[in-house]
Amino acid sequence: MPDNTYSQFEKFNKYITALLVMCKEDTNILGLALIGSIGRQEEDQNSDINAEIFVNSAKRNEFSTGQTEIASKIGRPLLISYSKKSLNAIYEDLVELTVKFTSIETAAPKARYFTARVLVDKTGKVIEIIQRT
Predict the structure, then answer these.
(1) Are 97 and 49 within 8 A, CB to CB?
(2) CB of 41 closer than 8 Å to CB of 77
(3) Are the beta carbons of 86 and 99 closer than 8 angstroms?
(4) Deepest in the core among 31, 69, 118, 124, taking most CB within 10 A?
């Protein structure tokens, strides 16, 4: 069986890049965390890519109502489901993405749920790295 590690990386990379571009361009987004091990579907995650987007609490409702547009900025979704605080999308190459919207005021590390979390601010500077011990 051929090793497709590189092709898996390329497949996920285009969605992560689109997510980063969207976060950098949107002035309401204050930070981004990529959660867990991408593409490995470990027990602490249920998607190929899990992300957390940090916004001001006053702006979180705007993200709750604009999730179809957000999913379309990242790629071409086949299926979208969402709740008030999160978005799940499956894209044309069957990559599953989960994005949770968190107000920056209430963001706190939840080490028992995450393998790792990297918080990056709008300039691209890493603010915080949290790993499960």
Answers:
(1) yes
(2) no
(3) yes
(4) 31
| 18-49 pLDDT per residue, tens | 998 888 888 888 888 887 666 555 555 567 88
* Distance of alpha carbon 65 from alpha carbon 78, whole angstroms: 19
pTM of the model: 0.68
Residue 133 has pLDDT above 50, yes or no: no
Residue 34's SS3 state is strand
Cα radius of gyration rounded to whole Å, the chain = 14
Note the pLDDT tens digit of each residue in 102-115.
877 665 555 444 44
Beta partners for residue 53, in sequence order: 32, 101
Separation CA 48–CA 100 (nearest Å):
14
